[in-house]
Amino acid sequence: QSIIRTFDYDVFYGGKATLNVWNPKVDNQSDFSLAQLWVTTESFRDWLAAGWTADNYNTTGCYNLDCPGFVQTNRCTILGTFLRPVSVYGGQQYAVDIEIFKDKTTGNWWVRLQDADMGYWPKEIAPSLAEGATLIDFGGEVSVVYTSRAHPSTEMGSGHFPYEGFKKSSFFKNVQVLDSFYEYRNPRYIKAIKDKEGCYGLQVGKNRDGPWGLFFFFGGPGTPSEKCPCVPTVEAFSGMGRSRMGLHFYRGKMLAGSGQEPAITEER
Predict the structure, then answer these.
(1) Calpha distance 185→129 (Å, rounded)
(2) Does residue 83 surpass a pLDDT of 70?
(3) Most buried among 20, 21, 103, 213, using CB within 10 Å?
């Protein structure tokens, strides 16, 4: 993982960010690489997540709309939709705005993409989040299933380290949390978590008052790096929605939809 963890002495009712969109190389059918935000508590008993994933067309498990849970209300853009175009190294950059928030009235947790409601998780799915979240994570994660491969090279983000900066390394920007007053603000406290620092990195921006707000660069090439000689052993999580370079949410069912691709924002 290369993530920032936000925490406070209060509860959160949501989080949002702008996610840079890339197509990282996935070394094996069993591997995946993602960028997303997680809403959870210290117990990690329940968590909700949304973002984009590259997983080499992996179809095992229970993702997107293949099992009950997430209720899609948007009839245009559906779960598993491809995100196109994607960013080009040193060239044009693309990004999507993703938001998870708790509805004041129903207690259900909603997802927004590009300011459009996608659907919701019924509150019964995540009972430990009934009073709100205490942790919200933003960042990237890679899962590599251990095999005889000596040096798997699944990338995170753009496949380049954070020090390369804009147009070369993947970023999150305008990272915010929804506080107990239902107001979005910058997190008071953050913690950088880098459990495979030689393989993948994370660098938090210093100027939070600029147009990017709280931002960070993350990612890396994996084991081709000289500082990453060993096999990554990041544990794969079950129950995350995945699709190749597509939108994903934790579980879900589709009401109806035309399968249109979402509009992607150009970054300059």
Answers:
(1) 20
(2) yes
(3) 20
Q: What is the mean pLDDT of residues 167-172?
A: 97
Residues forming a β-bridge with 149? none
- What is the largest distance, in Å, between two alpha-carbon atoms of the chain? 52
pLDDT tens column, 171-203: 999 999 999 999 999 998 999 988 778 889 999
Nearest by Cα to 190 from 127, 137, 114: 137
Q: Which long-range contacts (CB under 8 A, 24 or more apart) does 223-226 make?
A: 223/151, 223/152, 223/153, 223/199, 224/151, 224/153, 225/161, 225/198, 225/199
Predicted confidence at residue 68, as pLDDT, reads 60
Give yes or no for a contact between 240 and 248, defined as CB atoms under 8 angstroms apart.
yes
Residue whose pair of structure tokens reads 């949002």 in the numeric block: 16
- Two tokens at 191? 């913690």
Q: Structure tokens of 251?
A: 């579980």
- Tell me which DSSP letter residue 252 carries: B
Check: CB of residue 13 under 8 Å from CB of residue 132: yes
For residues 204-222, one letter each, b for 16 or more C-beta atoms within 10 angstroms of the residue's C-beta and e for the rest, the string is bbeeeeeebbbbbbbbbbb
pLDDT tens column, 209-250: 889 999 999 999 987 666 776 554 443 332 222 222 344 444
* Tokens 């939809």 belong to residue: 257
Q: Give how far the C-alpha of residue 254 lies from the chain's centroid of Cα atoms, to the nearest Å.
A: 21
Q: Where are the domains of the chain?
A: 2-267
- pLDDT averaged over every residue in the chain: 79
Structure tokens at 129: 């989040």
pLDDT confidence of residue 55: 67
Spatial separation of the C-alpha atoms in residues 145 and 259, rounded to whole Å: 31
